[in-house]
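## Example record

The block below lists the input lines for one assembly entry, exactly as stored, with component labels intact.
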Amino acid sequence: QSVLTQPPSVSAAPGQKVTISCSGSSSNIGDNYVSWYQQLPGTAPKLLIYENNKRPSGIPDRFSGSKSGTSATLGITGLQTGDEADYYCGTWDSSLSAAWVFGGGTKLAVL
Amino acid sequence: QVQLQESGPGLVKPSETLSLTCTVSGGSISSYHWSWIRQPPGKGLEWIGYIYYSGSTNYNPSLKGRVTISVDTSKNQFSLKLTSVTAADTAVYYCARQVGPSSRYHYMNVWGKGTTVTVSS
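Predicted structure tokens for the full assembly:
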């Protein structure tokens, strides 16, 4: 069981919008910044969002991030078939066993 | 730009030690944290631990006692050793650069392509 909870899968049609949630606790999301990663099939993860809502250079503004309390959300608008991938949230956990934690991942299907 | 490349044996016997190296090219290993992350077949990502270029480390509590991460700044490399491996340690192992002014800001902005390690006799 992952410390951060994500839905196993989401789906939407091309051109539509989808959101992926990431739920944690006061010791992780509630106290630290969240980042999001996209993993296309057979490839390494790639940074999509950092510090809750910032996009690295080269990431289109179709991707957005937000955080409220102990939950974070990744939003993707104008869905494309190329967005089909696994998406992971991650953050630092400041509990006694301080460590980096990932969500279990969400598979996005663009139908 | 900075690139990372994992290397090491693709097959390790049960109870033996898994050893991998990550070579950093296109930039210096100094001034950053460097992480190992793994992904078992069909499963999600698991953070193994990181090392700061100065040598300080932080490990996933679930693997503590079996993991050692070291750095060789002269070679621009950092390494992973995982002892007493079992089939559960079979995974794709990634190295990554972990950045941010402090732990609470951290994120991984550069990843290697990953290397598959199978634990089997």
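The mean pLDDT of chain A is 96. The radius of gyration of chain A is 13 Å.
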